[in-house]
Probable transcriptional regulatory protein AOV_02500
Amino acid sequence: MAGHSQFANIKHRKGAQDAKRSKVFTKLRKEIIIAARSGPPTPDLNPRLRAAIASAKAENLPKDRIEAAIKSAQGNAADDSYEEITYEGYGPGSTAIVVHALSNNRNRTAGELRHIFSKHGGKLGEKGSIAYLFDHVGLVVYKAESIESFDALFNLATSLGAIDLEEGGEGEDKVYTIICSVEDFGKVRDGLYAQYSDGELAKLSWRPKQKVQVDSPELCAKLVSFLNDLEDNDDVQYVEGDFAIVG
């Protein structure tokens, strides 16, 4: 019986891992479709698509599924008619939360997110309910080790219209984050990519004007559970908040 129990546990773990992997693949496929529709369906001419494909390859999404997603973007299938939606609300401990989703059914997604927020003691808000707590900006991130001259990067970024350049991390994890307005994001990203090739990350982001330090073990556990449920939702691409878990 012990051997049977061990085998059952292994099957259960593998099933959970496969389910998680499937969710990741679903999110990657959606991003590829949206990216392919945002410009030319050719990676060399579409930086967002190029970044989406790079992310998919990093997660080992099969090549045939990447190509199928790009092809699907050129069709009119209702199931692949995704729209980008931003949701705002308050999570555990009155933390401000921004959820970025890709959905083909706005009502379904809103209902599912409302349930998750409510389940964890939060509340899904109206558009603009917490936006004043954040700056909506564009971000382009490079590993510091890939940049020969910080000054050259700074000068190019500012000439393209960047607002700021931040340093973060240490050693191999050190990165440079270029910050720009939403309006200048495409110009800044494309100009940097032309000089330094693609970065680690390029996206529009809601950056909190002030972060709340969360050091309560109980609240930390509630936030982790809440975020896990959000990320388990197939329509949720990523989540941002005004808190930093410490300790």
